[in-house]
Amino acid sequence: MKIKVGQAILELVEGDITRQDTEAIVNAANEQLRVGGGVDGAINRAGGPKIQEEARKIGHCPTGRAVLTTGGNLMAKYVIHTVGPIYRGGTSGEPELLASAYRESLKLASAKGIKSLAFPSVSTGVYGYPVADAARIALGTVKEYLAQHPEIELVRFVLFGKPTYDAYAQVLDELSRG
Ligand code: AR6
Fold first, then answer.
1. CA within 20 to 30 Å of 17's CA: 32, 154, 157, 168, which one?
2. Which residues, 6+ apart, have CB-to-CB distance to 53 below 8 Å?
3. Predicted model pTM
4. Residue 177, domain member (yes or no)
5. Does residue 82 have its Cβ closer than 6 Å to ligand 1?
6. In which domain, by residue range, is 8 found?
7. Would residue 173 show up in a list of annotated catalytic residues for this protein?
8. Which residue, among 58, 80, 59, has the nearest Cα to 71 in the 3D structure?
9. Is 5 helix (H, G, I), strand (E, B) or coil?
10. If DSSP codes are grouped into helix, strand and coil, which group holds residue 66?
C-alpha cells in the first residue's frame, strides 16, 4: 500500500527490513546502542560487525533521538539507530517520545542528504507499545514531515508479519482519506 505526500511516496510493505534497498534503514535500538534482539539483532547479523563497532564509538543515544552508522554489508548504505520509548501505560510521555524518534530519524536523513529510508515498527516488539497506537503516531509523524520536507523522496515502513502490516494499513487508509 502506498500514498503520495506532495512528491514523496509513503509506503507499507510486509517483510524483512535487512533486505531493503533504500539508502538508509532505521534500527529500533536501545539507549546503550548494544546489540539486542528483534530488528536490532537482525540488522547487526545481516550487516556484520562494522555497524556495532561504530555504534560502540558513539556509545549512547537518548530515547527519542537518533544516530547514524554505516550499513556494513547491507544493501542500505546507512543505518539510522533510533531509540523508541519503553511502553509504561502511555502516560509517561511515550507518544511524544515515539513521535520524536521518527522525527529525529528523518531530520538526520535530511541532514545527510539521504532521500530514501525504511522504518520498522519502532517500540512495538520488546518495548511493548500497542501497535495500533504506535502506527497512528508513526504514520502521522512521517506524513507531516514529508509534507514539509520535499528533500525526502521515499519512506517505506517494513512491517514484520501480517498483524502489524494490517494495523499500519488501516491507519494509512484513514490518513489518506482525511
Ligand atoms: N524486519 C522488520 N521488522 C522486524 C524484524 C525485521 N527483520 N525483526 C523484528 N521486527 P523490536 P522495540 C519487528 O523488539 O520494541 C532490541 O533488543 C518486530 O516484530 O525489534 O523498539 C533492541 O536492542 C516489531 O514489530 O524493537 C532494544 O533493546 C518491531 O520490529 C529493544 O529490542 C520492533 O520490535 C527495542 O524494542
1. 32
2. none
3. 0.98
4. no
5. no
6. 2-172
7. no
8. 80
9. strand
10. strand
CB 110 within 8 A of CB 151: yes
Q: Are strands 8-14 and 24-28 parallel, antiparallel or unpaired?
A: unpaired
Instruction: Using the CB atoms, write b or e for 96-126: b if 16+ within 10 Å.
Output: ebbbbbbbbbbebbeeeebebbbbbbbbbbe
Interval between CA 107 and ligand 1 midpoint (Å): 21
pLDDT in tens, 157-173: 999 999 999 999 999 99
Q: What is the DSSP letter of 40?
A: H
Q: Looking at the domain assignment, is residue 61 inside a domain?
A: yes
The number of beta carbons lying within 10 Å of the beta carbon of residue 90 is: 12
| Active-site annotation holder among 40, 133, 166, 173 | 40
As given in the structure block, the three cell numbers for residue 46 are: 545481516
130 lines ligand 1 (CB under 6 A): no
Query: Can you tell me which residue has the cell 558513539?
Result: 58
Count of domains for the chain: 1
113-149: pLDDT as tens digits: 999 999 999 999 999 999 999 999 999 999 999 999 9
* CATH number (domain holding residue 52): 3.40.220.10
Domain-embedded: residue 43: yes
In a domain, 178, yes or no: no
For residue 155, how far is its CA from the centre of ligand 1 (angstroms)? 18
What per-residue confidence (pLDDT) applies to 36? 95
Pairwise CA distance, residues 167 & 130, whole Å? 10
